Amino acid sequence: MANKITAIRGMNDIYAADAEAFDFLISSAEAVMHQYGYHSIRLPIVEKTELFARSIGEVTDIVEKEMYTFADRNGDSLTLRPEGTAGCVRAVIQNGLTHNQVQKLYYTGPMFRYERPQKGRYRQFHQFGVEVFGLAEAQIDAELIVLSARLWEQIGLENLELQINSLGSAEARAAYRDILVAYLNEHKALLDEDSLRRLDSNPLRILDSKNPDMAELINKAPKLIDHLDEESKLHLDEVKAHLDDCGIEYVVNPNLVRGLDYYNRTVFEWVTTELGAQGTVCAGGRYDGLVEQIGGKATPAVGFAMGIERLVALLMDKELVPAQRQADVFVVLLGDNVTRPGMVLAESLREAFPQANIQMNIGGGSFKSQFKKADKSGAAYAIVLGDQEVEQKIAAVKPLRDGAEQETIAWDDLVDYMQTRIN
Ligand code: ATP
Ligand code: MG
């Protein structure tokens, strides 16, 4: 026997109950998007490597060691997208979507990062992302947070903690950078290898270190939020005021810096303590400089991305996924000449009742085994077709849930008869 071919480590097949939870989450998120008037955008999975290097930042974990980068057959360096914002920014610029107009966009799909696979951390994972272009007001930062909270409410997720912070303006960050570097230099002996390297290239990234040995040093470091520019301070206050008005609780986490370089002002994460170490289920913030940095006209922007796998894990743990709709009708086919009329009959019901779940037995089997399948489908009615029924152009309709009497109905009357029975 040939060797079995398996999937790539960290890239999962999603099926059965997990797939249902996945679909439930996506359709719930889309419903919220429509509630707020956001529009769908569909983006390529592969982009030029340079796009990510320039947007996410050369000295970030993602760009330094997590990207799936390869040479195209013509030698171009391409990368499987590790996140959605960079591609979305490229797309709005390239298609002229930010000229004198606001864009409120959402997308979903797979992302790729070469990370160490573990619970809640995979090499192919999925995000649902939301991006708004053209609005600088704190109101839109707040709207994004509020609409994510609405999604949690609509899918029944409780106990997510909202953490927010401000990264200030580029100038405030530059000034703070000097203060931070001075502090880190005083404690140089405590820095790990990654951090030593970043001390020159990108010291703010050190604050995002996941190394527990660095935690104390980072906790005691001077905080960017204490060195904000006046406008960013006011902006953060406005975001907080809107959250207060809408009854959204939050904690200000001065250590929240995010793993990507493009953010300024508001950053936020929704965190759970119920998934172990991988507790952030949704993260985002403002990135006013990015559109210009990628070659567009300066455009304020803000967005976030949800980690679908982590949210699916929560939905599964808490049994929050609604049961699949059961069958309404199961068509039982018993005889030599029943398959063709049976199919036509099932189609006539699907035509008349587009919302209904109409299943049909395929592959024969005894009366008993077909009724077993009908029961398993949860159908309210079995419609039985044998050779004799076909000859007389009738069908037996047998209620399966309430023990009511079976009735014989002419094909021509079947849709009418089922009208009051299928809801
Ligand atoms: P983390 O700190 O957990 O590595 P991150 O800051 O790298 O997250 P973002 O780039 O902000 O993550 O992505 C947004 C969300 O996507 C995360 O909050 C998380 O829910 C999810 N996510 C990120 N990386 C992975 C992964 N490798 N596997 C599964 N989900 C992920
Ligand atoms: Mg990460």
TrEMBL record:
UniProt xrefs under Gene3D superfamilies: Anticodon-binding domain (3.40.50.800), Bira Bifunctional Protein, Domain 2 (3.30.930.10)
Domain Aminoacyl-transfer RNA synthetases class-II family profile: 1-341
Molecular function terms, GO-annotated: histidine-tRNA ligase activity
Subunit field text: Homodimer.
Membrane-spanning residues: none
Subcellular location: Cytoplasm
Species: Thiomicrorhabdus marina
Keyword Methyltransferase among UniProt keywords: no
Record has Aminoacyl-tRNA synthetase as a keyword: yes
Taxonomic path: Bacteria, Pseudomonadati, Pseudomonadota, Gammaproteobacteria, Thiotrichales
Protein's name in the database: Histidine--tRNA ligase
Reaction it catalyzes: tRNA(His) + L-histidine + ATP = L-histidyl-tRNA(His) + AMP + diphosphate + H(+)
InterPro entries named among the record's database cross-references: aa-tRNA-synth_II, aa-tRNA-synth_II/BPL/LPL, Anticodon-bd, Anticodon-bd_dom_sf, His-tRNA-ligase, HisRS-like_core, HisRS/HisZ, HisRS_anticodon
Superkingdom to which the source organism belongs: Bacteria
Main location per the UniProt record: cytoplasm
Family the entry assigns: Belongs to the class-II aminoacyl-tRNA synthetase family.
Gene assigned in the entry: hisS
HAMAP family referenced in this protein's UniProt entry, alphabetically: His_tRNA_synth
Top EC category: ligase
Keyword entries, A-Z: Aminoacyl-tRNA synthetase, ATP-binding, Cytoplasm, Ligase, Nucleotide-binding, Protein biosynthesis
EC number: 6.1.1.21
